[in-house]
Amino acid sequence: MEVTDKKYAMVITTCPSEKEAKEIAQMLLEKKLAACVQLFPINSYYIWKNEINSDNEITLFIKCNHSFYQKIEDAIKAVHSYEVPEIIMLPVIDGFKKYLGWIDEVSGD
User: Fold this and answer.
1) Burial level of 6, CB count in 10 A (0-12/13-18/19+)?
2) Percentage of residues in the chain having pLDDT higher than 90
3) Most buried pick, 34, 42, 45, 77, via CB within 10 A?
4) Cβ-based neighbours of 28, under 8 Å, separated by 6 or more
5) Average pLDDT of the chain?
6) pLDDT for 6-51, tens place per residue?
7) Beta-sheet pairing, 36-48 with 51-65
8) Which three-class secondary structure state does DSSP give residue 48?
9) Region class of 108: left (phi > 0), else alpha (psi between -120 and 50), else beta
10) DSSP H helical segments within 31-68, as ranges?
11) Are 24 and 60 in contact (CB under 8 A)?
């Protein structure tokens, strides 16, 4: 399958704490739903229930096969502490072929 067939993706989510982010990362790797999860501290500014808020959060970049999205979403929702967690998928249009091949090697059944 060509990379342009959207075989690969990056799923992004945010967590309120490093502890929760690490738990989600570990779970996704153990279930082989992701090849790599990167955690980044961020400052988020957003509207929630008609109020402007700001919080420190941890963003997770989840590198995966596109076809795993629904399983990843379900796994995150099952353990996430937010009422409405951010869970979005960005398709990978292209990339270093050896890296993308590595995603295939380490994730999935």
Assistant:
1) middle
2) 91
3) 34
4) 34, 37, 62, 64, 72, 75, 76
5) 94
6) 699 999 999 999 999 999 999 999 999 999 999 999 999 999 999 9
7) antiparallel
8) strand
9) left
10) none
11) yes
Tokens at 24, concatenated:
């989600």
Q: Which residue has the tokens 């501290």?
A: 41
* Nearest alpha carbon to residue 16 among 39, 50, 49, 36: 39
The token duo for 91 is: 């398709």
- Which two three-digit tokens encode residue 10? 């990056």
Kindly state the tokens that stand for 15.
Answer: 């967590």
Single-letter amino acid, residue 31: K
Cα angle: 70, vertex 74, 79; to 5 degrees = 155
Torsion of CA 78, 71, 3, 9, to 10 degrees: -10
Q: Cβ distance 8 to 99 under 8 Å? A: no
